[in-house]
Amino acid sequence: MLDPNNQVIYVSGDGSGDFNVIESMKYSAQTIINKAINYVKNHPTFKTVYLKGPFTYWVSGTINCCSNLELTGDSTACVKLVNTAGWKKMVPLIGPYNEKLTNISIHDFEIDGNHDGNFKPDVGKAQVFPYVNKGAGYYNLMYFTYSSNIFVYNMYLHDGHGDGLRVANCTNVRFYKNTVNKLGHDAAFFLRSYDCHSYENIVSIRTNSGTRMNDCNNSSIHDNRVWAYANYWDAGNPGFQIERQYKNEISVDIYNNEIHDTYGCGIWVVCNELAVKESGKSKVYIHHNKIYGCGINPNIYYVGGVINFGIHNVIVENNVIDECYGHGVACMGIVDSAVSETPVAMYVRNNIIMNTKQRKYSPVGTGHGIHNRVASTHKMYVNNNCVWNNFNGNYSNVTPFNDINVDPLCVNDAQRDYHLESTVGRWDGHKWVKDLAQSPCIDKGDPISIYDAEPDPNGGRINIGLYGGTRFASKSVVDIAVEEPDKVEVEEHVVEEPIVEEPVETPVGKPVEEVPVKVKQITSILYPVFNNRLKQATPDVPLKTYTYSDVGALGGNVYRCLEYFDLSEFDNKVIDKAELKLYWYFPENKTRANDTIVEVYRPDTYTAIYATWNNKNKTQKWAVPGGVWYDSKGTKQGRVPYADIKFSKGKVPTDRYYSFDVTELVKQYATGVYPNTGFMLRAKDENNNYIAFYSGNIQMTNKKLTLVVTYHE
Fold first, then answer.
1. What is the pLDDT of residue 340?
2. I need a labelling partner for 217 at 20 to 30 A (CA). Which of 59, 69, 150, 653 fits?
């Protein structure tokens, strides 16, 4: 009689268990294990089936789990597929794959897919009829469908023909702290599932990827280490693969992974050519990953660090991408305007992308740091990266903003130590140390990226690179000695300013003359780093990729916009004049029912990638829908604009720029009176008076929204 207080059912191969695999059942151990599981199923006081080791549990059929089951065992217990199994497609070693289950945990033992025992060497394929390639759905180690609360951890999974864990239409799945070696497809494959997470795994890839997510939402891949098991024809493809096919949106967060020496690209995001229409709400966020040496496959062209085949709203931020083949970051493939209302948008910022090599297959024209092969359908927004020393140039078909192109001064590229050198303090893995040089990437990231986790002194701005925005970020120099300025040279624009001196005795009849000094005056032309349309009719949808900025009201809907420029070059400079120039083009050849007075205000803080009519960032809403602003008097929601222009109702666009004098606001930003949050544009009276200007996203520089700043030292 089993003790109900124990809650554990033991299975063994030496007669010491509650259920025992005897010699005659040696090659069908699943029969005994399934009896133990059925006992748990029929006796709710029991929760656990424990496989005792050391013992190999040969299985000739599926181990069928039930709900509310813990399947565990000794690390020396091994479930192994029999030789020449000959199973049908999609039949797993542990399942079942065709029942709706909940609350299953599988942990702490070994599963051996017995690749070589189910292999026909003369054809190099799985030994089933007909002979098929690895990854064709045969002999998946674990497979569940329409189930919830599945936890697989501390497992050793190896030498298979299929996936390690495969789930479809499941919720709340965790795959973590597993060691995976030489499977026949993905270590973990999640299809059309929600709340799935793959983390802290060590994966040596064969045939496909470390983790693959197809049509998944609210899911993540983090803190894994993945690489190809060998430089060999079946060594797999990407480190991670993210796909959209039957869902109109996906959301996956990929961070803190080490991806190296993969046969395909490091991370591949891909939209199926027959995918349903994109909702505009997808998000694949790739950040703080170490990606190096990826893309060694000599037979395919889609290799590199991070490659996008048509997924909308891919954000690549604060990664290091080093010595990859093909391209560091790229948009490629045959996609996709037919399934998207707007072009595919990809955001690349705060990364170090360096030492990219030509790919091995058809190498001509490859080896760029950042490359857009499909510019007609894919828009890449590139800013505040360090892109350096790439074989075929740093950029191809992209326009970077505020990137730097110098040696980032990482501690030791060859040893993959990508901490930034700092004379003030740099983390060496154990303690803070000081270097002889200061990396140019410190305090050079996107000025609106969050830097709060960086240790003091942090310069009030995120670092470029792997550790930017984290507690391991290298420290900033804050006190810099002021040197005597170089002699001022006179250029095109000259203003004269009097020098006021202390009075001195002067001979009578010889008055003191004001001595003019000529000051170098410089003009900078800037384009927006971010454009955000705020549309009342779609209050929760970020609208960042449009070629126009619009204000006013149309059909009862109100429109406003946010324009953000990087003004860091004007720190401690004297601003003489600043003009925000908008090119009016719509409604073309039409008048409006009412005048449109376009006003400029200072917006409250917000995060551009999330800003909408309702939302100021990922987790917070505006205090007032439509955005919070301050007027020129500093009044919240005040109505005294920094600048305004009246567009009379009887007027139509005249093919020219209109200039708003925003000198006062830019001065306040440059001198630190307020943090730079850009400009909010809105109409004074939002009543049937809609107009639109070209935004910073349009390709034509002679019509692009522009900020022109004239200043001197």
1. 39
2. 69
